[in-house]
Amino acid sequence: MKERAPGLRRLARVLLPAAALAFAVSLFMRNRLPDKNLILEPLFQNPIQSDTAVPEPFEVTRKKVDYTVTPLFSYELWGMIVSSHDASSFIDISHKQWNDFLNTKDICVIWGRNVETGVYERMKFRNRDFTCYYRYPDEAAAELFTENCLSNNHLLPDGLLVAETIRKARKGDQVHFKGWLASYGVKGAPYQRKSSTVRNDRGNGACEVVYVTEFEILRPANAAWRALHKLSLAVAALALAALIFL
Predict the structure, then answer these.
(1) What is the pLDDT of residues 92-140, one digit of tens each?
(2) Which of 35, 52, 150, 176 lies deepest, with the highest CB count within 10 Å?
(3) pTM to 2 decimal places
């Protein structure tokens, strides 16, 4: 039987390995942290925390669950995301179990001295459900790094638009957000997740809980690599389909 579309099949044989290689390279490159020379000036400052314009406790409903949010301080931060965790991820084991649909994402961010020195380029960062982990390779990096210029933020978006912008934020992005440091919990329940209100605490309870009213990505990282990653996946899928069905 005469082979159908032989030209397309030959093209697919060339495109599939090329797309697979591009996908593999971009998978790694899309998550690089930017060079310190690309850091925007606002990130050199510390977060701003104030006890003015703090509203009374209020109620929020997500997925038919009512929560009570208690604002503690007004809060504003400029930082670079070094790792993050999406609460809807398949590896998340806590949020659904605890009926927590308000905290949609955690982002671990750095600012100030940690971006000025570029020490982050020598470090490793990762997130799990409610925790940011980091390590440095040697004592020299440890001396440069300051824990007071890193925070793990449990983000509670004010609405769908804010939630969508937060969802798009990725490792390496330079971001700005504002809202309130807050405590929150299921309405009527005895337990509340409480925010840290200082930057120099450590361990359990040291994370910031932020009810976010504004969130913006000031400078996305690795935009070209991210685009190549999506494109290469699509090309590989089309090439594979062509080899199977043509």
Answers:
(1) 888 888 889 999 999 999 999 999 999 999 999 999 888 999 999 999 9
(2) 150
(3) 0.89
Please, are residues 122 and 176 in contact by the beta-carbon 8 Å criterion? Answer: no
Find, among 80, 84, 153, the residue nearest to 114 by Cα.
Answer: 80
One-letter amino acid at 228 equals: L
Tell the burial category of 102 from Cβ atoms under 10 Å away from its Cβ (0-12, 13-18, 19+): buried
Residue 83's SS3 state is strand
Rounded Cα distance, 137 and 118, in Å: 14
- CA–CA separation, 107 vs 93, rounded Å? 17
Taking only the tens place, the pLDDT of each residue in 21-31 is 999 998 888 88
Query: Strands 65-86 and 105-110: what pairing?
Result: antiparallel
The answer to whether residues 59 and 71 touch, using CB atoms and an 8 Å cutoff, is: no
Checking DSSP bridges between strand 48-50 and strand 208-219, what pairing results, if any? unpaired
Residue 238 pLDDT greater than 80, yes or no:
yes
Q: Give the DSSP H/E element, type plus range, for residue 178.
A: strand 174-186
208-219 and 150-157: which strand pairing? Answer: parallel
Give the relative orientation of helices 6-29 and 223-245 as an angle to the nearest 10 degrees: 150
CA 61 vs CA 69, 74, 99, 145, 181: distances in Å: 10, 22, 12, 39, 19
SS3 167: helix
**Residues facing 153 on adjacent strands:** 107, 208
